[in-house]
Protein: Glutamine amidotransferase domain-containing protein
Amino acid sequence: MLSLSFTPLVPWPVLAAFGVLAGVLVVVAILARGRTALLRAVALALVIAALANPSLVREDRDPVKDVAAIVVDRSGSQSLGERPAMTDAVKTELERRFGALTNIEPRFIEVGDAQGGEGDDGTKLFTALTQALADVPAERIAGIVMLTDGVVHDIPASLETLGLKAPLHVLVTGRSDERDRQIRMLEAPRFGIVGKDVTIRAEVMERGGTGHATVSVRRDGEEIDRQSIATGTPFSLTTHIEHGGPNVIEIEVEPLPGELTTVNNRAVLPIEGIREKLRVLLVSGEPHQGERTWRNLLKSDASVDLVHFTILRPPEKQDGTPISELSLIAFPTRELFVQKIKDFDLIIFDRYANQSVLPSAYFDNIVRYVREGGALLIAAGPEFAGPASLARTRLSAVLPGDPSMKVVEQPFKAALTETGQRHPVTRALPGSESNPPAWGDWLRIVSAQTRAGIQPILSGANGLPLLALSREEKGRVALMLSDQAWLWARGYQQGGPYLDLLRRLAHWLMKEPALEEEALRAQTTGRGREVRVERQTMAEEAGPVTITGPTGKERTLALSKAEPGLFSATFEAESLGLHTLRSGNLVAFVSVGPANPRELADVFSDTDRLKGVAEGSGGTIRRVAAAGGGIEVPRLQVIRGGRLGGADWIGFRPSDSATVRGVEVYPLGIGLWALVALAAAVLAMWLVEGRRGRAV
Structure:
């Protein structure tokens, strides 16, 4: 390819000034000397041309293919109904047809859900398009094809704002007669007070529905309500917060026949149960050195409201002192153990002996309180082995062990049993990793035998049970068979982790979710879409976890042992939204990105959203679903002018781009030939003007 190039020896303004001056001189010369002055004009023109330094440029070029970008939408909404099959079929056909266009290079761009967090989810096709074409000059882009359902969340005002001048053709999957029903949350409280009701407001939205639907409500997997509601109208639900920690509320609407997806028919709302105050009743049977340890521990916890009584004057102590001269407060037994017993989350008997302070009917009330969901802790001393032991009262029905009427007085180190190594109350207690544990000695233990099926979590002297836990219907009971925990608090022989042990024990009794023996938990790690799953269990092994994604797709995750009683694994979420995890009868939820992704808020395929930007670029938009049930893929054509789309075809605009392999430059204004031309012009001017002068 030949072209003429100029590289002036002086700046262009100077060259232009020379040209103007030469033109004026030529005009004056012609007026003065006539046509013979034209030779001077030629000479001046050659001088100016030499200063312009013209060159003849020869380029060796190889034509390059234009690029056609094919954006394939693989977002969450594209996995619904027939859309995956349509997408795969159209993509395969496009690959075949682009293979026949020898001057266009197809570039397929697969786009999933956006990787961002809350407020940055959805389908970002145009963002992916500009990133994928960053290495391609705009003039080489012959056209863009988007294969999508039309649910796109980053649509620009026009392609020109993205620096693209190519036509955009949109091929829309899905059908125009799709029907669907979904739950939309209007008011969803994140927290609730334990024992109180919360109100949830929601609405059932539908397209192609019946106008009414049946909604079921489950709490922690158990159905608590079912009602028929009108669709398109907000409705309210009232639910009771049963316990602290997550109370998982599921609202599900019955599906429509043949609806697009049932994934958005269910809304999951974890409501964090918060206790206003954990009320604890501590009854000390007599003053002793460990009494203040319990009191200080419970008083230091801001979430605990402690009521503490110490029996200083048992009934049998009758010395004739007038009541008016005693400064003791009467033990309000009826108020505590009859009228207000259900107000307490935990009752602790600390070295308490049955001294006829509490009648048998009150012990029946305590047993009933435990079985209906209360908690009981017996911190036993020598009195537990005597005839006044609580084990000889009606409390024996719920105690996890029976004393053998013997107290062992010898130093010993508390140790985790095999069960205790897995139990969250005692697992990984500081100092337990060594053998024997790096703890100070205790000096006394009550000999006892645990009930059948109950394994202690701490053992003491001679392998005797030291701490045993049990569940009684809805309630919990703990039996600590020594009153020596205060030695750790006082730092005897370097002490021990009494705060960890006693606090965990008290909160396990009060049903702290983090201390459940059988639990399934999941949370995002903060590294992209990575989710960490933990399974707490008292079993030797933990089975696999079934994960259900926002689109209904299931996968199985195997767990590995992290430490005794705790198994864990991580997985990469394939899509944004709420994931449901199941292991046996345990259920957990984790939200990757927003809990309600934009992908599932509006699932209907749409040709209107992209119509403006497609037609504004000179392209077209159409559905690929044929009336007979198949698909229709338009023909591909290269068009140099005119319309870029028709009823059954879409066009691409070529650019005739090429790459330059080599360049040869031939200067015309300098060198021997330029000098010869200039000399010839000057000589001709001299001869002609000299002859004319002689003639005159």
Remarks:
- Residues 67 and 141 are 5 Å apart (CA to CA).
- The two ends are 53 Å apart (CA to CA).
